[in-house]
């Protein structure tokens, strides 16, 4: 079986359909590669080559961190900014988009563990009168609620650029979604919707008595010492963060400065590849939630989506049925993969900074998938 086939579950309809705007700046002639020394037995040559290939294919920067037990390797290729000279680093911040969903799902499951809600509890008991159809918390988590997706109308690079300064509230996002026709009845099918996680953020805020951003900080970022991870509610991102670009028809548009309110609790988090690995290790080793809820998150479904997680085949044992779990982020100008063995011991997080308006036809999807597979394969037993 081809190694590319083992990640088929990662490339189906779980993508955010995002769009971009155009620009005419020329590619930089500067090519750079930066790595940290190999720690332990991780085999890194193929990983670095894959990052270089991703930049050669059109990404401005590609960064990754691989972990295997206590061994860690970080690598990067490309530049912080087009036209600049500063080399990208795996320590640089990026917008992680829908990898945020795994974090919000973890907060929800912590609240389940605390007895403050139940997975099969009707949303109407938690947000009375908001939804016109009977939906459960579980259906929000695994995208089987049928709730329409508010994130529409970003079909070109121009659409994205024109909305970069828009400030919206969660109420406005929910209202926009509920004005649309429901694609399916609750519980009948998998239909990806960012609105599901806006609703989960609202539920968590009500039960935790604080904003979802503060809950993430208190429950995940601080305990795991994820010092480079934040939940912005505006366009804030570090001055030295990697710049994100919409890639359309061979042109690049810088969309680094983009108000995060459009993403809300479905995709707003800013982080680093190292912090993403820290998160998934803390999630899967039992630090954040007990094993019974880890098992609930890692449920196998025909769609490849569990409770806030995607699953894929393990590159170390293709065709064996062994899996990795994590999430992908398809944002405006940024893309992210973060996957881990079920116990959190073997991990790869990858981010790159150019994205087509529609991830389903993104020319960088295949080289990025190859980089992810190379990262996982680098941790396979010799």
From TrEMBL:
Residues 59-361 form the Beta-lactamase-related domain. Its EC number is 3.1.1.103. The keyword Transport does not apply. Residues 1-24 form the signal peptide. This is Serine hydrolase domain-containing protein. Keywords: Hydrolase, Signal. One of its GO terms (molecular function) is hydrolase activity. Residues 21-42 are annotated as: Disordered. Coiled coil: none annotated. The lineage of its organism: Bacteria, Bacillati, Actinomycetota, Actinomycetes, Mycobacteriales. InterPro entries: AmpC-like, Beta-lactam-related, Beta-lactam/transpept-like. It is an enzyme of class 3 (hydrolase).
């Amino acid at each position: 079986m081809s190694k590319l086939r083992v990640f088929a579950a990662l490339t189906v309809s779980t993508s955010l359909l995002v769009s971009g705007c155009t620009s005419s700046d020329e590619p930089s002639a500067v090519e750079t590669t930066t790595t940290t020394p190999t720690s332990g037995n991780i085999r890194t040559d193929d990983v670095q080559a894959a990052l270089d290939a991703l930049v050669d294919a059109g990404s401005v920067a590609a960064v990754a961190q691989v972990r295997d037990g206590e061994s860690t390797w970080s690598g990067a290729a490309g530049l912080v900014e087009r036209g600049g000279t500063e080399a990208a680093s795996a320590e640089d911040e990026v917008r992680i988009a829908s990898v945020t969903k795994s974090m919000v799902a973890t907060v929800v499951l912590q609240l389940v563990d605390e007895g403050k809600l139940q997975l099969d509890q009707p949303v109407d008991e938690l947000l009375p009168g908001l939804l016109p159809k009977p939906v459960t918390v579980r259906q929000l988590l695994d995208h089987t609620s049928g709730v329409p997706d508010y994130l529409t109308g970003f079909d070109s690079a121009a659409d994205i650029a024109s909305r970069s300064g828009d400030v919206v509230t969660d109420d406005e996002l929910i209202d926009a979604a509920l004005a649309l026709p429901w694609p399916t009845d609750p519980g009948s099918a998998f239909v990806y919707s960012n609105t599901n996680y806006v609703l989960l953020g609202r539920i968590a805020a009500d039960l935790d008595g604080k904003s979802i951003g503060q809950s993430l900080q208190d429950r995940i970022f601080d305990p795991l010492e994820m010092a480079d991870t934040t939940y912005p509610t505006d366009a804030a991102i570090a001055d030295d963060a990697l710049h994100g670009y919409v890639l359309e028809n061979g042109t690049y548009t810088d969309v680094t400065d983009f108000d995060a309110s459009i993403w809300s609790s479905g995709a707003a988090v800013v982080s680093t590849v190292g912090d993403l690995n820290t998160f998934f290790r803390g999630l899967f080793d039992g630090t954040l939630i007990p094993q019974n809820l880890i098992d609930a998150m890692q449920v196998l479904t025909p769609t490849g989506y569990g409770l806030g997680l995607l699953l894929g085949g393990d590159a170390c044992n293709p065709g064996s049925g062994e899996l990795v779990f994590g999430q992908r982020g398809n944002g405006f100008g940024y893309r992210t993969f973060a996957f881990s063995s079920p116990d959190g011991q073997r991990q790869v997080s990858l981010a790159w900074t150019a994205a087509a308006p529609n991830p389903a036809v993104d020319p960088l999807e295949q080289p990025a998938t190859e980089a992810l597979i190379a990262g996982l394969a680098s941790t396979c037993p010799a």
